[in-house]
Write a structure and sequence with these properties.
The complex is a heterodimer of chains A (166) and B (596). By secondary structure, chain A is α+β, with helices and mostly antiparallel strands. Chain A is 27% helix and 40% strand. In chain B, 36% of the residues lie in helices and 16% in strands. Classes of the chains: A alpha+beta (166), B alpha/beta (596).
């Protein structure tokens, strides 16, 4: 108890019209933090998988998972934080680029294995995929050049299956 | 395990048993309107009574109800009244209560009723009209986003989209409302879906994929709990509404009496343990008894069953039961460990957990503990001025308990009278107190009492129904007296009339320097006996102590319709003991602080 920690929670939910507002409403109604929330179709027709990044002490996180489980359309709740998981976020970053800074920006983009997806005389738009931390890092590196716009998806995550043990 | 008590039943049978026994056999039928499908689905669920008010969006459904002819429609004066009535019906009978209202204002008027049912886990299904699907979102006449408005106060909700979904939706709604931790479910019904045609196919099975209430407790946790109880020296059973809802009262009685464990309860748990038993401590919490609160603060073990450690119960949480280990049994895992740290959590239905637990408990030695409790009880009984010539509210309640011998169903409103009822009525049976605990809804009493009386006409056990209300709360829903007259519902309304919003006045007296801002009703209170008479009910007024008992007897002997007794009680009386907000349970004010 006490210490605020970031948690990534994966929720498998029936895709009914009310399921997603119910989940979002749970967070606002009970005052839980949402750092990011993302949702899309899951492997099974009619089901969606939602990835929620939230913060709280152990008590709050326990409440969040229990309350999520109570929602009738929620089929499975997994707190990924305590096991290895893969996590990806997509960001598009439009950054100011002049004649003199353009090549430096392109170097940074290469180092992060990101991509330039749009170019204009005054800007570059960078597509970056990776963990939240990586996306955070490239944005940090680009910020001094002058960021015009950012659009981010929020995390999606799945548990890792194999850790090398036989 | 537990075979000696009762054979286990599967989860799908639980609590819906009664409902399905009375369900009417319904044949498949083809090419019906959505409304006709809906009435058949309701009949299939064993529904006998609907509470509500029709309107444009549900006229087709109202017509189908009338033509089908198997339900009684109780037309209330306000949708809030309909919802409280269905709630009272459900709490008393254990069956799902049904509300039918129109769109827009019809549905928003149910909101207080839905929230009340939600906070106290009462199973109701609210059928709300909705504008035709193509008009949804256009700010159409009498349109409101009912599902959006009610989302935070429902267990679940449905929007009908096709007539062929209706029957299954109704089945799921009743199943969800009545099982697990019960609660309100809304079905929003667009007008065009009710008018479109489809087929009605009876179905036996209900599958709700994400919804699997956990009925049976974990065996290892149960044996840990038994072992802990066996070595307790100062145990206290702390029971709540979940014991009543799950039908576990008889098992709680066994657990307590066979092992000599004293019992306290929340407001919602009253009646689950007989209040004339020597092990009964009284209610605990803000207006609990001295004995119950001290017992909890001194206990070495709290066995909490179907109770959620509400802030009105715990007082200052940091100092709640400081010496005790806590065993917490509840069907809702999210209430376990939420307010207090729990040593042995058991998730499951109280009845089924106790079926497994009771046989494992072997009498802890509580002799000294019970002696201590007896000393508290002797030294700190509930007090009021019994010699007073004024009509004391506590005296009215005590007389009522005497005249009815604790065999009535008492429905209360919210406020001082509610707490005096909890303290001074002698509840003997579960489901004989129906009260708004969690939300604290003034105006609940009269319409809920009406629902209780109507449930009796639908087969629930016959008992006199007494609504104990304050003058403030009564005036919030007293129009439902007209409904009670219309259907000759024999509810007795005892108005504890002190001319104030009494609990507000009490707090203002104790904590706001006696500045009675906006709590004095005396300027404009009507003559309530004459109000009753003008609505067609019997009205009585009691101003002197010696009139109390004859008036109670006269009211109870009238069963042709509602009776209102206006008890003009001492307006200065307060509820004690009282744990001030933010204080610990043992920091009770036991009586009115002497005048400065």
């Amino acid at each position: 108890m006490g210490e605020m920690k970031e948690h990534t929670i994966s929720v498998l939910v029936e895709q009914t019209f009310d399921a997603l507002p119910r989940i979002a409403g749970l967070f606002s109604g009970r005052g839980y933090q949402i750092d990011s929330i993302s949702v899309g179709e899951a492997e099974e027709p009619g089901m969606a998988r939602m990835t929620i990044v939230t913060r709280g002490d152990d008590g709050v996180i326990e409440q969040i998972t229990k309350q999520l489980n109570k929602i009738v359309n929620v089929v499975k709740v997994t707190d990924l934080t305590y096991e290895p998981f893969v996590e990806r976020e997509l960001a598009l970053v439009k950054v100011t680029a002049t004649q003199s800074t353009r090549s430096e920006i392109m170097q940074i983009v290469n180092i992060f294995r990101a991509k330039i997806v749009d170019i204009s005389p005054k800007t570059l738009t960078v597509e970056c995929t990776g963990s939240r931390a990586k996306v955070q890092a490239i944005i940090g590196m680009l910020r001094p050049f002058g960021i015009r716009e950012i659009s981010r998806t929020g995390s999606v995550a799945l548990k890792r299956e194999f850790r090398g043990e036989t | 395990m537990g075979a000696g008590i009762e054979a286990r039943v599967g989860p799908s049978e639980i609590r819906l048993r009664n409902q399905s026994l009375e369900a009417q056999a319904v044949e498949p039928a083809y090419d019906l309107s959505g409304a006709e499908i809906l009435v058949r689905a309701l009949a299939e669920q064993g529904v006998k009574t609907l509470f509500g008010i029709p309107g444009g969006a549900v006229l087709g459904l109202a017509d189908a109800v009338g033509r089908y002819g198997r339900f009684r429609w109780i037309l209330t004066k306000h949708e809030q009244g309909a919802t409280h009535a269905a709630d009272g019906y459900a709490r008393y009978s254990g069956r799902v209560g049904v509300v039918l209202v129109t769109s827009g204002p019809g549905s928003t008027n149910t909101v207080t009723g839905i929230a009340t049912a939600y906070m106290d886990s009462s199973p109701i299904v609210v059928l709300t009209g909705q504008v035709p699907l193509p008009m949804v979102g256009n700010d159409a006449f009498q349109e409101v986003d009912t599902i959006g408005v009610t989302r935070p106060i429902t267990k679940h909700s449905f929007l009908l989209r096709s007539p062929n979904d209706i029957a299954d939706t109704v089945r799921k709604a009743f199943y969800i409302a009545g099982s697990g931790r019960p609660g309100p479910v809304v079905i929003d019904m667009p007008k065009d879906v009710l008018a479109a045609h489809g087929d009605y196919i009876p179905s036996a099975e209900i599958v709700v994929r994400g919804y699997k209430p956990k009925i049976f407790g974990h065996a290892h946790q149960i044996s840990r709990a038994a072992e802990r109880i066996n070595r307790a020296r100062r145990p206290v059973l702390y029971i709540g509404g979940g014991v009543v809802a799950s039908g576990a009262s008889d098992l709680v009685r066994r657990l307590a009496i066979e092992n000599r464990i004293p019992v306290t309860s929340t407001l919602m748990g009253l009646g689950a343990f007989p209040s004339d038993h020597p092990l009964w401590l009284g209610m605990l919490g803000m207006h609990g008894t001295w004995t119950a609160n001290m017992a909890v603060q001194t206990a070495d073990l709290i066995i909490a069953i179907g109770a959620r450690f509400d802030d009105r119960v715990t007082g200052r949480v940091a100092d709640f039961a400081p010496q005790a280990d806590i065993i917490h049994i509840d069907i809702d895992s999210s209430v376990i460990g939420r307010n207090v740290q729990v040593d042995i959590p058991i998730v499951g239905d109280a009845r089924h957990v106790l079926i497994d637990l009771v046989p494992l408990v072997k009498g802890p030695d509580t002799k000294e503990w019970l002696e201590q409790i007896e000393r508290w009880r002797q030294d700190h009984p509930l007090r009021y001025d019994r010699e007073s010539q004024a009509v004391k509210p506590q005296y009215v309640i005590e007389k009522l308990a005497e005249v009815t011998d604790g065999e009535a169903v008492i429905v209360t409103d919210v406020g001082q009278h509610q707490m005096w009822t909890a303290q001074f009525y002698r509840f003997k049976h579960p489901r004989t107190i129906i009260t708004s605990g969690g939300l604290g809804t003034m105006g609940f009493g009269l319409p809920a009492a009406m629902g209780v009386a109507i449930a009796q006409e639908d087969g629930a056990p016959r008992r006199p129904v007494v609504a104990i209300v304050g003058d403030g709360g009564f005036q919030m829903t007293m129009e439902e007296l007209i409904t009670a007259v219309a259907y000759r519902v024999p509810v007795k309304v005892f108005v504890i009339n002190n001319g104030y919003l009494g609990m507000v006045r009490q707090w203002q007296e104790l904590f706001f320097g006696r500045r009675y801002v906006a709590s004095d009703l005396r300027q404009a209170n009507p003559d309530l006996a004459r109000v009753a008479e003008s609505m067609g009910a019997m009205g009585l007024r009691v101003e002197r102590r010696e009139e109390v008992q004859p008036a109670i007897e006269k009211a109870l002997s009238c069963d042709s319709g509602p009776v209102v007794i206006d008890f003009r009680v001492d307006g200065q009386e307060n509820v004690f003991p009282m744990v001030p907000a933010g204080a610990a349970l043992h920091e009770m004010i036991e009586a009115r602080p002497s005048d400065k």
